[in-house]
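Here comes my example:
=====
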Amino acid sequence: VMESSPLELPADTLQRIASELRCHPTDERVALRLDEEDKMKHFRECFYIPKKQDLPPIDLSLVDKDEDAIYFLGNSLGLQPKMVKTYLEEELDKWAKMGAYGHEVGKRPWIIGDEVILGLMTDIVGANEKEIALMNGLTLNLHLLLLSFFKPTTKRYKILLEAKAFPSDHYAIESQLQLHGLQVEKSMRIIEPREGEETLRMEDIIEVIENEGDSIAVILFSGVHFYTGQLFNIPAITKAGQAKVGVIGTELLGQQEADNTADGKLHTYNSGILSYYSSFKM
């Protein structure tokens, strides 16, 4: 049996298992083997998985209504962890019994609620505690970052991003450009895949940075593309951007993305990169 590599690409994993089983990569046996090898499969029990009978688009005459649904929307909204209700009820109970004293006492004093889990976030996002702030929501945090770091001039006024970025990111960028009185069509530089292709080529991204960098104020890329799942080489984009552009930002959507994007070492990227993180897309 061939050993898997920690750097093995998904396509290579499918080919490896198919070769071991002497079948096509789309054979059901490959899927079953993947389930067997999944070191994180026990986490499935930590989440509520919708039943088919509870989902509006399901034709119940075609399925077993009591079966779990197959959920493909983790990049939009993750499933509910089973402990959420317990944690919320603990805080509501504390509020009922103590009122404002809940700010300072209990397992999770509200006044330092964000600090309680900073230690857990260091490994997830690959940064030191002093480099992490937990607050608000994704789009609001992006607005706050851009208000601080997007300072357009007559020569440097563009924001560079990938086509079909996460929708709220796209809208936030449009809003920021309009706030500064800029024309979105001229200031929002969107990199599209080549004709007939679904993903972006790194050489095309680097070429745009090198050719247009003098007019780009901010590069804003996701670590993993929301729509296609493409893993972007953020270190390479950062290096190219720091040579030509003022600020580089990246959105990290989840545990695996942070690991793959930054090798667990976001803080080693240099001071020119800002990262904003969304924890609800898992």
Observations:
- The chain has ten helices and five strands.
- Confidence is low (pLDDT under 50) at residues 253-264.
